[in-house]
Amino acid sequence: MNLEIYTAPSCPWCTKLHRLLEMANITEYTEYILGDNITEEEILDKFPKEIGYPIVIIDGENVGGVVGCAKEFVRRGLVSSKKK
Predict the structure, then answer these.
(1) Regarding beta strands 61-64 and 30-33, do their DSSP bridges make them parallel or antiparallel, or are they unpaired?
(2) Is residue 84 very low, low, confident or very high in pLDDT (cuts 50, 70, 90)?
(3) CA gap 33, 81 in Å, rounded
(4) How many CA atoms lie within 13 A of 76 on its CB side?
(5) Number of Cβ within a 10 Å radius of residue 31
(6) What would the pLDDT profile of 21-69 be if each residue is shown by its tens digit?
(7) How far is residue 34 CA from its own chain's centroid?
(8) Domain 3-75 sits in which CATH superfamily?
(9) Are 17 and 5 within 8 A, CB to CB?
């Protein structure tokens, strides 16, 4: 799976995304952090319709943020949708 994430510092949803990645035991991904290795202008050029963070790209498809990522991980069997 090719995974790219676009995050922003101090973003609570980005923190949730990182927890989700840990739950799925995913350690290999490319992360672009606003103000660190990517600018807001570059993100807006790449994703003009996005209005928040994080942005998650799985195998070249924009799945949205944390919820879209979680749904895709459940679909792939990487995490369970059942509460423990």
Answers:
(1) unpaired
(2) low
(3) 28
(4) 12
(5) 17
(6) 999 999 999 999 999 999 999 999 999 999 899 999 999 999 999 999 9
(7) 13
(8) Glutaredoxin (3.40.30.10)
(9) yes
